[in-house]
Amino acid sequence: NEQIARLNSAIEAAAQRTDNQLVKQLGAIAGIGPVTVASLLAYLPELGQLSRRQIAALAGLAPYNNDSGQHSGKR
């Protein structure tokens, strides 16, 4: 538990030191803390560069049609 608390403190301190606008915008959302912001940016570094639809597809939240020629894939 102490190790987790130290890591959380380090993440919070790093988030406060950054000038990154995306970090500040994500951190301003109610219920989104520094650990969640760090996780989002670690797993989705494309945030801020892709559209919301592209991010949803990248995260696997938006299924897309997998058709090719006469083959019709599952969604």
Automatic annotation (TrEMBL):
GO biological process, one term: DNA transposition
Coiled-coil stretches noted in the UniProt entry, renumbered to this chain: none
InterPro entries named in the record: Transposase_20
Pfam families attached to this UniProt entry: Transposase_20
Signal sequence residues: none
MF GO annotations: DNA binding; transposase activity
Domain of life according to the entry: Bacteria
Stretches assigned to the Transposase IS116/IS110/IS902 C-terminal domain: 26-73
Name listed for the protein in its UniProt record: Transposase
Organism: Stutzerimonas nitrititolerans
